[in-house]
Amino acid sequence: MAKYKIIPIKCGEFQQHEKSTLTYFYGYGEKIITPIIAYLIRGEGLNILVDTGCSGEEWAKKYHHPIKQTEDMKMLNALANLGLQPDDIDCIVNTHLHWDHCWNNDLFPGKKIYVQKKELEFAENPIPMQYPYYESEQIGMQPPYKKTMDQYEVVDGDVNLYPGIDLVFIPGHTPGFQGVLVDTEGGKYLIASDCIGRFENWEGVGIHKHLPSAIHVDLKECYATYEKIEKICDYILPGHDMKVFEQDEYPPKK
Ligand SMILES: [Zn+2]
């Protein structure tokens, strides 16, 4: 059975970030440092990049929220530190097309980028609350995902990508969201990204078994997605939690 390792890549850190944007109505007023995370799946001779991170500091500050981005957080440097060039990447998966997850797609010319059909459709005409996240044309911007239109490999629903690696349709945060389910020596990990932005979204609080992000398109879908996730994996890996970096890789080294 194919077994892989998953390496988190920190692409930037939102400064003074309002926690409750990720934990619906909980932690209001609490300002935290929130990382922007991409993941690299390695094993069986493959290097698969899940999301490509965010813009640089200036752009983020002007159009989104201030971030700190050291040299080693820039995508190409982060990969070089793992001994990889863009050409070593076999393919890319976009969990969704928010700016902080697909910004650097164009650093990988010619590589296939897996995205859900519903995500591409929604990105073209998002709900107004999410215009800024897609940098959508409706607000006069040029969506970063559009730089690589000729590279998308459009999938619809759950799809097996390689032995031991599956794309899993888990909508809610966006209508076409996908996670990546990965077989490892330590069990099945779901790279859940913004579907479960922080570990506490999964662990829940009070009567809430799981806690949705405040950034969602459909709460009912969020809950249906949680039920699906409960059945398919042993561990989740979130898109915006500093705790992820307590380990260099998953499963953790013994
Ligand atoms: Zn997002």
Structure description:
The protein has helices spanning 57-63, 75-80, 99-102, 117-124, 131-134, 199-203, 219-232, and strands spanning 5-18, 31-43, 46-50, 67-68, 91-93, 113-116, 152-155, 159-162, 165-169, 178-184, 187-193, 235-238. The mean pLDDT is 96. Strand 8 (159-162) and strand 9 form a beta hairpin. The chain has 254 residues and is an alpha/beta fold. Helix content is 19%, strand content 28%. The protein has a single domain (5-246), classed as Metallo-beta-lactamase, Chain A (4-Layer Sandwich), CATH 3.60.15.10. The strands form two sheets. It has a seven-stranded mixed β-sheet with strand order 4-1-2-3-5-6-7. The chain binds zinc ion.
SSE map:
Layout lengths: L4 E14 L12 E13 L2 E5 L6 H7 L3 E2 L6 H6 L10 E3 L5 H4 L10 E4 H8 L6 H4 L17 E4 L3 E4 L2 E5 L8 E7 L2 E7 L5 H5 L15 H14 L2 E4 L16
Bound molecules: zinc ion.
Please report the distance between the alpha carbons of the first and last residues.
Answer: 21 Å
Bound molecules: zinc ion
Silhouette: globular
Task: State the low-pLDDT regions, or none.
Answer: none
Number of helices: 7
- Tell me how many strands there are: 12
Beta-strand percentage range = 25-35%
Features:
7 helices, 254 residues, 5-stranded mixed sheet, alpha/beta, single chain, 7-stranded mixed sheet
Short description, anyone?
With 254 residues, the protein is of the alpha/beta class.
